[in-house]
């Protein structure tokens, strides 16, 4: 077997595949080019109806091919666990790519740190043709906490991570009742169980973004995010300080869905989702982070770098104001927030963004609007802190 040995593989790379004829070959080849040779490749075909099987079988004995009836990503990953033998497991999405040194770097961390349960790397976004985009997933180690993952969604996707098999014996397998958001559910369960996450702070994965990904439909994403979040608060042993985060966490999934709808041109649904979010957690209307993520999420995944946001800031600022105007001009009366304070917070965020761009006149204009509308939000140190430390979320 090319790139492997006859010994029990240390690392099993499991590739769930569903109608990915165009991409799965590149994913397999990215594994076969690894500088680390002690691995196996298992492709789980989740009932594909295109040429996925033909694309995989041309690799012969270098890849173990397993076909199952369609059951979703969680079921495919569990099947991969059943048909693999490595003590470390990597779940590579069939449209993503590993850099040649990833497995070697992850294996080194596991070897040197027996307490490590998950080792994840950073990822660069690429488009459907493989061209590198200007944004990356750079999840800092301090961001992988139960609080932050509850509030912000999952930032440790399994294409970026290697997991000790014993972790699954400890926390259980992927929840097959979740057709999406199963990775968020799994990371939450790992954190509740005290699994140790370790970070390789460099780009070692290319993550493909395209219109056919599972997360492309914001309505479906919201449905499954809510299922996963309800499961977390109903069944997991969350500490009291995390249980108090329920309103903010539910606002987070509504915010993500709203911005997904807005980008698709469905502004009515987007505004309805945000109104629902403010009804759940009114304090969000006065948080700088709310509007920072509004600005960032006006751009699609892969194009949310700070440089791109600043480059496009004129258009993004105008569009963010259009969204907030539509949100607050609510004839139903469902948005029970102080509109002047909400506007003030948005303008304070825009003032600091324009200041970062060294557009001092525009920065001063937004700062003046912020102070005249409501003096409190601009005076909050949280505004500056949010802009210094936060990246717009995916």
Low-confidence stretches: 1-8, 389-394
Could you describe the largest sheet, including whether it forms a barrel? 9 strands, mixed
What structural class should be given to the helix and strand makeup?
alpha/beta
Q: Could you give the count of β-strands?
A: 9
Radius of gyration computed on alpha carbons: 22 Å
Number of domains: 2
Average pLDDT reading:
90
Q: What proportion strand?
A: 15-25%
- Tally of alpha and pi helices: 18
- CATH homologous superfamily heading of the largest domain: Spore Coat Polysaccharide Biosynthesis Protein SpsA, Chain A
Shape: elongated
SSE arrangement:
Elements (H helix, E strand, L loop, with lengths): L10 E7 L6 H9 L6 E8 L5 H6 L6 E5 L4 H10 L5 E4 L5 E2 L3 H11 L3 E11 L5 E6 L8 H7 L8 E4 H7 L10 H11 L3 E13 L9 H18 L4 H4 L2 H18 L3 H14 L7 H10 L8 H6 L1 H16 L10 H18 L3 H14 L2 H4 L1 H9 L5
Parallel strand pairs: 1-2, 1-4, 2-3, 6-9
Antiparallel strand pairs: 4-8, 5-9, 6-7, 6-8
Q: Can you give keywords for this protein?
A:
single chain, disordered N terminus, 394 residues, Spore Coat Polysaccharide Biosynthesis Protein SpsA, Chain A, alpha/beta
Molecular structure report:
- The chain has helices at 24-32, 52-57, 73-82, 102-112, 146-152, 165-171, 182-192, 218-235, 240-243, 246-263, 267-280, 288-297, 306-311, 313-328, 339-356, 360-373, 376-379, 381-389; strands at residues 11-17, 39-46, 64-68, 88-91, 97-98, 116-126, 132-137, 161-164, 196-208.
- Helix content is 49%, strand content 15%.
- The protein has 2 domains: 11-212, Spore Coat Polysaccharide Biosynthesis Protein SpsA, Chain A; 217-389, no CATH class.
- α8 (218-235) runs antiparallel to α10 and α11 (267-280) crosses α14.
- The protein is built from 18 helices and 9 strands.
- It is α/β, with parallel strands linked by helices and 394 residues long.
- Strands 1, 2, 3, 4, 5, 6, 7, 8 and 9 form a 9-stranded mixed beta sheet that branches.
């Amino acid at each position: 077997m090319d790139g492997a040995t006859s010994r029990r593989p240390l690392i099993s790379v499991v590739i769930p595949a569903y109608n990915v004829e165009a991409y799965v070959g590149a994913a397999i080849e990215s594994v076969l080019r690894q500088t680390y040779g002690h691995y196996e490749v298992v492709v789980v075909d989740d009932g594909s109806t295109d040429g996925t099987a033909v694309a995989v079988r041309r690799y012969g004995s270098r890849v173990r091919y397993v076909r199952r009836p369609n059951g979703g990503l969680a079921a495919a990953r569990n099947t991969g666990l059943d048909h693999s033998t490595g003590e470390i497991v990597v779940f590579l999405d069939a449209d993503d790519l590993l850099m040649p040194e990833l497995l070697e770097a992850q294996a080194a961390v596991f070897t040197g740190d027996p307490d490590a349960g998950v080792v994840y790397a950073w990822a660069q976004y690429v488009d459907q043709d493989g061209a590198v985009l200007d944004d990356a997933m750079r999840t800092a180690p301090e961001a992988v906490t139960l609080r932050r993952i509850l509030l912000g969604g999952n930032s440790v996707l399994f294409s970026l991570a290697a997991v000790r098999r014993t972790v699954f014996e400890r926390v259980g397998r992927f929840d097959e009742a979740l057709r999406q958001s199963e990775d968020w559910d799994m990371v939450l369960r790992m954190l509740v169980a005290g699994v140790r996450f370790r970070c390789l702070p460099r780009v070692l994965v290319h993550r493909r973004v395209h219109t056919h990904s599972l997360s492309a439909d914001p309505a479906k994403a919201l449905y499954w995010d809510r299922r996963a979040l309800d499961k977390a608060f109903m069944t997991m042993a969350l500490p009291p300080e995390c249980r108090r985060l329920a309103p903010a966490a539910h606002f987070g999934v509504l915010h993500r869905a709203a911005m997904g709808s807005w980008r698709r041109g469905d502004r009515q649904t987007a505004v309805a989702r945000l109104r629902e979010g403010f009804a759940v957690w009114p304090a969000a209307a006065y948080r700088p982070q709310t509007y920072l993520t509004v600005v960032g999420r006006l751009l699609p995944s892969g194009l949310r770098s700070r440089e791109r946001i600043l480059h496009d800031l004129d258009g993004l600022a105008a569009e963010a104001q259009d969204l907030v105007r539509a949100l607050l001009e609510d004839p139903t009366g469902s948005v029970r927030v102080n509109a002047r304070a909400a506007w003030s917070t948005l303008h304070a965020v825009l003032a600091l963004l324009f200041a970062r761009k060294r557009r001092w006149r525009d920065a001063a204009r937004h700062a003046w609007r912020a102070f005249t509308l409501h003096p409190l939000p601009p005076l909050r140190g949280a505004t500056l802190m949010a802009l210094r430390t936060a990246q717009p979320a995916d």
